[in-house]
Structures are given as structure tokens and as C-alpha cells.
UniProtKB/TrEMBL annotation:
Gene3D superfamilies: F-actin capping protein, alpha subunit, F-actin capping protein, beta subunit. The keyword tRNA processing does not apply. InterPro entries: CapZ_alpha, CapZ_alpha/beta, CapZ_alpha/beta_2, CapZ_alpha_1. Coiled coil: none annotated. This is F-actin-capping protein subunit alpha. The keyword Magnesium does not apply. It comes from the Eukaryota.
Length: 282
């Protein structure tokens, strides 16, 4: 079967992989390219929403809460219904349109939980951590199954004018029954001036905390542990970049010809053909 015999639905299914693997901050550009490929907006709209929903949840999409100066996230941890997500800080539930990327409604949402005091104290500590380390970042805390407190942090830096975008996402699940804290950090960076370089890295953590009946002390311990582990990961990334700069790139550069000119890739094939003819004439 060639590409010209594919149905519109089959074409959409194939090109949606471009969207799910798109760099942070560039999803709309990829979406517009997909529109040009499919050339059928109605069919695209009918088939693309599940993929957009999955992408929003996986990337912890940050959204504004109507009538407030606050933000919340779209995650699996605060999803209560299809397209409905709870913000525990404002006690609001928003309905989010993933296709148009906007909040379409907002309502009061109150759910009793024995962990609300702990969650609120954790959130307070998270805000202090963000002010210190992620000035433009967003952090939200959620309650899951009335037994876990979840912290999600997003730090995005988008600079398309200078051809780079980057995203930091981390999630931390504290189990109040076992005292364990499980974390996952994801970093995605894209630099595309005169090239196309991406770094995608993920790292998982699993640590044990000492349980205490003092919620204020416990909340402080949770965020201190998050801070320590994230700083540890930051340092490992810095060491990695230093290794690339001091050793890997230098070793690679010494293998290249020192001409002080850019390689004309369009002429490479001509160089090879000329070389072959010269060898045949000997």
C-alpha cells in the first residue's frame, strides 16, 4: 500500500506521532504543519482530541484559573472526569478544551480529605522553593486516593526568537502510609539554529522519609527532600555538559579538517565522484 491510497484517518494516525514527539513550546507549529498535510480540518478535529489530551496530561500543561491570578496544571493526578481537573488550592474544578487550549468553564469543587492540612502545608513550602529556584515555574499539590500527596513542578523556558526551547517537569508522590517518596524528572531541550539538536532525559527517584505526626514538620521534610534530589539531578546534568564540552566535542573537533569554512554538503557527492574518477585514471 502506498501513501496515496491511505484514508484520511490512516494519514492522521501516522502523522500524530509527530505531535506526540514534538519539542516543548513547538506543539502549535507541528499542529499547523499537520493541518497542511491532512488538508481536512473536520477529519483532523474528529480524530486528534485524544492525542492532544494525552499530550496535555503528560506535559503537565499549565493553565490560568478564571477570575484569579493563579495557575494550575492538567495532570493525571487532578483529573476527576473527562476534561475536568481540580485545583486544590482554589477549590475549583475547570473544564479544559484540549483542542482550543482554553478553559471553558470553572466551578466550585470541595472534597473532604484527611490529608488537606498536609497538602496545604506542602504547597506553602513548594511556593517558597519555586521562588528560590524556579522564578517562572509553577508547582501544584494534589491528593490521590486520600493516601498520597503529589507535587508537580513545571519550569518552561521558550525562546523561539533565538531558536531554543526547554522544559523541566517533575512529579513527586509521597505515600503517607509507607513514608516513601517516588519522583520522576523529565527534561526536554531543543536547539535548532543552523541545526537540530535535542536532549531528552528522564530520571527516577525512590527515597524513604521519617514519618511524624507533626504535619508542619512532615511538609517541610517532603519539600526539603524534593529540593535535595532535584539539585542532585541538576548537578549531574552540569557534569554531563562539562564532559561533553571538555572531552567529547573536543575529541570530535580534532578529527575534522581545519579549513575555517563551512562544509558545503550539496557538493559532497561531487567531491566523492571526482575522487573516484581520479583513482580510476591512475
Amino acid at each position: 500500500m502506498n501513501s496515496y491510497s491511505l484514508s484520511v484517518e490512516e494519514k492522521i494516525e501516522r502523522v500524530l506521532t509527530f505531535l506526540t514527539s514534538s519539542p516543548p513550546g513547538e506543539e502549535n507549529d507541528v499542529f499547523n504543519d499537520i493541518r497542511g498535510i491532512i488538508n481536512d480540518d473536520q477529519a483532523l478535529q474528529d480524530n486528534i482530541v485524544p492525542t492532544l489530551t494525552k499530550l496535555s496530561i503528560e506535559r503537565f500543561q499549565v493553565v490560568d484559573i478564571p477570575d484569579t491570578a493563579l495557575k494550575t496544571m492538567i495532570t493525571q493526578y487532578n483529573q476527576v472526569e473527562d476534561n475536568k481537573y481540580v485545583d486544590f488550592n482554589t477549590k475549583k474544578a475547570i473544564v479544559f478544551d484540549h483542542l482550543r487550549e482554553k478553559v471553558v468553564s470553572c466551578e466550585d469543587y470541595e472534597e473532604e480529605s484527611t490529608l488537606e492540612e498536609l497538602r496545604s502545608l506542602v504547597q506553602k513550602n513548594v511556593v517558597g522553593y519555586l521562588e528560590d529556584r524556579y522564578q517562572e515555574g509553577v508547582g501544584c499539590t494534589f491528593i490521590v486516593d486520600d493516601s498520597k500527596v503529589v507535587v508537580c513542578i513545571v519550569g518552561n523556558k521558550f525562546n523561539p526568537e533565538n531558536f531554543w526551547n526547554g522544559s523541566w517537569r517533575s512529579s513527586w508522590i509521597f505515600d503517607t502510609s509507607s513514608g516513601t517518596i517516588e519522583g520522576k524528572v523529565s527534561v526536554h531541550i531543543h536547539y535548532y539554529e543552523d541545526g537540530n539538536v535535542q536532549q531528552i532525559s528522564n530520571f527516577d527517584f525512590n527515597e524513604q522519609l521519617n514519618l511524624t505526626d507533626d504535619n508542619s514538620e512532615l511538609a517541610s521534610s517532603i519539600v526539603k527532600k524534593i529540593r535535595a534530589l532535584e539539585q542532585q539531578y541538576h548537578r549531574s546534568l552540569n557534569d554531563h555538559y562539562s564532559q561533553l564540552s571538555q572531552k567529547t566535542f573536543k575529541a570530535f573537533r580534532r578529527m575534522l579538517p581545519i579549513t575555517r569554512n563551512k562544509v558545503d554538503w550539496d557538493k559532497i557527492i561531487n567531491y566523492k565522484i571526482g575522487e573516484s574518477i581520479e583513482n580510476m585514471s591512475k
